[in-house]
Design goal:
The complex is a heterodimer of chains A (about 110) and B (about 190). Chain A is elongated, with a radius of gyration of 17 Å. Chain A contains four helices and three strands; from the N terminus they run αβααββα. In chain A, strand 2 (about 60-65) and strand 3 (about 75-80) form a beta hairpin. The relative contact order of chain A is 0.15. The two termini of chain A are about 20 Å apart. Chain A has about 110 residues and is α+β, with helices and mostly antiparallel strands. In chain B, helix 1 (about 5-20) runs antiparallel to helix 2 (about 25-40) and helix 5 runs antiparallel to helix 6. Chain B has about 190 residues and is mainly alpha-helical. Chain B has a two-stranded antiparallel sheet with strand order 1-2. In chain B, strand 1 and strand 2 form a beta hairpin. Chain B starts with a helix and ends in a 7-residue tail after the last helix. The chains are: A alpha+beta (about 110), B mainly alpha (about 190).
Chain lengths: ~110, ~190
């Protein structure tokens, strides 16, 4: 696949992957970035996730809080806002239809 | 405790970030990345592996820049407003003002070809048409009487028709350019796409 096409796909889906990782509980930023970094097709460089987190915060989809740490300085935790929960829910239902449609077309494209 | 490669990395990140981002966000980003590095090293990861997975400082700052919303372009820029005003009243500046307005209209990317044709053809010369036709109407309806020393008077000119035709024409010539100017102001759009 051309680098540009994959970049666009990644860019569109990555923010919802971030929201999905936050749906169960608030997460420490380092843990969040590390979890995403385990998927090379999602993240090419972990440092670029921090600008995304900043934008999600500005858009009101996530909020942060500082929590004391047993070892070291306070840690920044991210959690979903109500708007973030709605955005994730909407994307999840649209994504399934989109994914099924693309899979179906790709499958049929291979048929003689 | 930061190692030499980490200090070098953060120094470069600080330098690149300060060139491209505001002071507040630049400091915040460096702090976030610094915190990430400290947490990774505390978890036992080699510093070079951590820095490698983070990506280059330039990549991170580019990502920050690309996340910023695109600046809103005004629908009507200064040159577009000038074009509209010149099309309306530029004809009073030795007529050349109107031509400059037409030129600005046609080189602008805010209007379609149809919009530009409307702005140009309704009406050429803009409001000057009112005064030109008004002068012509005044000339044809004015009666001039001259009398010689012998008391013989000669009348020149006279009524060439109903004054209502002139009045209607005058109103059309006054209203049409104004409507055309308002049309251009409303129709202006920021172009989308390539």
């Amino acid at each position: 696949m051309e680098p540009t096409a994959l970049s666009q796909l990644r860019r569109g889906a990555l923010e919802y992957c971030v929201l999905a990782l936050l749906q169960d509980e608030p997460r420490y930023s380092f843990d969040l970035v590390t979890a995403l970094g385990r998927h090379p097709s999602l993240v090419t460089s972990e440092g670029t996730i921090y600008p995304l987190l900043s934008r999600l915060r500005k858009d009101g989809l996530v909020r942060t809080e500082q929590r004391d740490s047993e070892h070291g300085p306070p840690r920044r935790y991210y959690q979903l806002t109500a708007a973030g929960i709605r955005a994730l829910s909407s994307f999840s239902s649209e994504w399934q239809d989109f994914r099924d449609a693309v899979d179906d077309v790709l499958r049929k494209g291979h048929q003689p | 405790m930061s190692t030499s490669p980490v200090r070098t990395y953060l120094a470069e990140l600080t330098s690149v970030a300060e060139q491209r981002l505001g002071a507040r966000r630049s400091a915040e980003l460096v702090e976030e990345i610094g915190e990430h590095i400290d947490a990774a090293i505390a978890a036992g990861q080699p510093d070079m592996d951590v820095l490698d997975r983070l990506g280059s400082p330039r990549e991170i700052v580019e990502a920050e820049v690309s996340e910023a919303p695109a600046p809103q372009q005004p629908r009507l820029r200064a040159q577009d407003v000038i074009a509209i005003f010149l099309l309306l009243g530029g004809g009073f500046i030795f007529l050349i003002g109107w031509f400059i307005g037409a030129g600005l209209l046609w080189i602008s990317d805010r209007w379609t070809t149809r919009d530009k044709l409307v702005g140009t053809l309704l009406l050429p010369g803009g409001l000057t048409g009112v005064f030109v036709v008004g002068g012509m109407v005044a000339t044809t309806t004015t009666t001039v009487e001259t009398c010689s020393s012998g008391g013989v008077c000669t009348t020149v000119g006279g009524d060439s028709g109903s004054p209502w035709l002139g009045i209607t024409l005058g109103i059309l010539l006054l209203v049409t350019p104004i409507v055309s100017a308002v049309y251009l102001a409303v129709r202006a759009k920021v172009p989308t796409g390539p």
